[in-house]
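Board notes (copied after class):
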Amino acid sequence: MPDPSRAHDLDDRHGPTTDAFDSVASPSPATSRKPGRRWLRLAAPLVVVAGAAGGFLIGRVTADKITDDETQVALPETPTSTAFNSSDQAAIDTLLQEGLSAHVAGDLDEAAAKYEQVLAADSANKFALFNRGLVAHTRGDLAAAIADYEATLAIDDAYVPARFNLGIVYSAQGEWSDAEAAFRAVVDSEPDNTTAMYRLGLALIEQGDDAGGQQLIDEATAIDPGVAD
């Protein structure tokens, strides 16, 4: 049974992951892929990578990846904001890409600095918010990670990587009812997401619902035997 504290690093939806979380976000439509313990989604122009705390990294490139962990990463979507002209948006995209590149290379200080620059220009950039949250998550600053993941969801309540990573953080803190709510929301949005299904089962068991939790775990492993690896 996997360690409930582990999260996802990247997401294309997801990107490479680590024992804590694996996701990075970026602006572009995500593509669907068989969910499992080692997968990630990237969004259109950037690539995303994850950190050691279990989160998502998001970039602007649409691509799926398999990771060694269960952390998820967000995918980049086509920018919909009209607050910037094409020149401004190009500069923001460049900063986000530079942040993603640094993030993937493990230079969290540089990545965080680039995300801060993006947010200084566009405070509602969910990809920069999510990825900054992933940096905090990787560093073990769970309060800051939660704040950025929640800020991301305030902008886009349907943003699955942020919801999933919240579940990872809450699991690590032993806040099982909150973890349950987060993973359940992911499963409701993506019924074939076996990783979230499995983790939802663990959260239920931790709260005493052994039968309900085991049923979800059995369903997840029946679909993807590797989800528990």
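Comment from the instructor: Residues 1-21, 28-69, 73-82 have pLDDT under 50 and may be disordered. The first helix runs from residue 86 to 104.
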